[in-house]
Amino acid sequence: MSAPPIAAVVIGRNEGERLIRCLRSLQGQVQQLVYVDSGSSDGSAAAARDLGATVVNLDLSQRFTAARARNAGLAVLENGIEFVQFVDGDCEVDPDWIATAADFMQAHPKAAVACGRRRERFPEVSVYNRLCDAEWDTPVGEAKACGGDALMRVVAVYTAGGYREGLIAGEEPELCLRLRRAGWQIWRLEAEMTLHDAQILRFGQWWNRSRRAGHAFAEGAALHGAGVERHWVAETRRALLWGAALPVAIALAALAHPLLMLASLIYPAQVLRLSRRMGFERALFSVLGKFAEAAGALEFYWHRWRGSARGILEYK
């Protein structure tokens, strides 16, 4: 089986040495290397050109989203490119990944997306980095969605209409949902894919990342929640229940009788319940994260009610 033409689209802003490491890891693995820059001030665009990448400078007069950046990279792919590897600029691609994923895709013509194991480069640096590493350890086999790093079949992405550019987060699961509706498959392979440098060292960074997830849940449910997949409906409801409705109900009950404040013990009880399945650390932050997710979901509803759109929610 002959090797298919493959490109890579890398997106980033001010990633510095991480971007250089990312682009170098792709050299020799792809026939076309594209870097989409969203307003870097650290010389990222020039460094990418020096490494042989086609550089696209995103028009920042329009609202920025990662989805817009990925579509901009798609738009400059050369004719004949069969697969495209999407990568975030803070990731390093495993030297065997693209060949492994491309072989799988060629052997499975209904596969539109293949992703592998994304690992955190420095999980020992912070609890938040460890949480990211655990989050990316998803089951092997046919899947519902991928993350930001994945090899995709170009014709499938084009016919699906590309990424939904208005989404500030959750753009990959939304695209995967449309691909699956069109009869395509999403696969998680048992193979090393990328090393990611999350650099989440402070609670505030983790909180904003969780807020962004809650916003994505609510927006995804608003877009596709009525479908048979019930896209992110359960995730949104859990966030709003544990992060908003229950705290308000407990506070109001405590106004009637202070002893009813004991109902708040449901939270440590939930941590202990989840600890049996995921360990104490992950369970604790899973419960804490519901407050941040609820904040993000409520923020989405607030902006939708006002007829406005929220800008990107960054955590680095």
Structure overview:
The protein has 316 residues and is an alpha/beta fold. It has two domains: 6-201, Spore Coat Polysaccharide Biosynthesis Protein SpsA, Chain A (Alpha-Beta Complex), CATH 3.90.550; 205-306, no CATH class. It is built from eleven helices and nine strands. Strands 1, 2, 3, 4, 5, 6, 7, 8 and 9 form a nine-stranded mixed beta sheet that branches. Helix 8 crosses helix 11 (280-306). The radius of gyration is 21 Å and the shape is globular. The model has no long low-confidence stretch (mean pLDDT 95).
For this entry, give a set of tags.
316 residues; alpha/beta; Spore Coat Polysaccharide Biosynthesis Protein SpsA, Chain A; 2 domains; nine-stranded mixed β-sheet; 11 helices; globular
